[in-house]
Amino acid sequence: MSDRAASIAAWEALFRAQVSVLRQLNAEFPTDEISFTEYDVLFNLSRQPDRQLRIRDLNKHLLLSQPSVSRLVDRLASKGYVSKESDPGDGRGTVARLTDSGFELFRRVAVQHADSIQRRVGSALSVDELHTLTKICDKLRLETQPHE
Length: 148
Prior knowledge:
The chain is an alpha+beta fold and 148 residues long. Helix content is 64%, strand content 12%. The chain has one domain: Winged helix-like DNA-binding domain superfamily/Winged helix DNA-binding domain (Arc Repressor Mutant, subunit A, Orthogonal Bundle). The chain has helices at 3-27, 36-46, 55-59, 66-78, 100-122, 127-144; strands spanning 52-54, 82-87, 90-98.
């Protein structure tokens, strides 16, 4: 098998595995309060200093277009899970901040979601395989990031 064919086969396997796992996790998502995609916003904000991030920077963590991220943040703000504020360092930008109620919801859902991830991913692979998969995915992500 050529390097090109091996690259394409690996991509196909990775892509199909991701789609399959995401469909399962989405079907098992443990709440109707927020969507799987809204949870991803809360997850990413929870990992930031002060649980906040400029919307344009949040966009880099999600698989959505800038207008879609803005609408998603607006929906979460209307539910009281996120607040929107002008960026104090640049008034043209908007900062999304995880509220206390948003963080509490995130934590509650995260426990059940983690159980689902364990069932769907952790039970399919050994601990060594999980470490190898993490290392490979991190390498792919870092190698394919646009250089700014």
